[in-house]
Amino acid sequence: MWMALTAGIAVVAGFAFSFAKTSSRAEKITEKHREELMNREIPKEKEAQRNID
Known about the structure:
Elements lengths: L1 H51 L1
């Protein structure tokens, strides 16, 4: 009985840690992608500003 309970807790904790790690990795990838997109958009905005002036 105790072994099954301990195994269940270990499995749940394993899933929780795995999800947290995956979520953290996805957040870092999203942040890098956002920065890359911002760097691509800045020259376009500057070019649009030049055309307006």
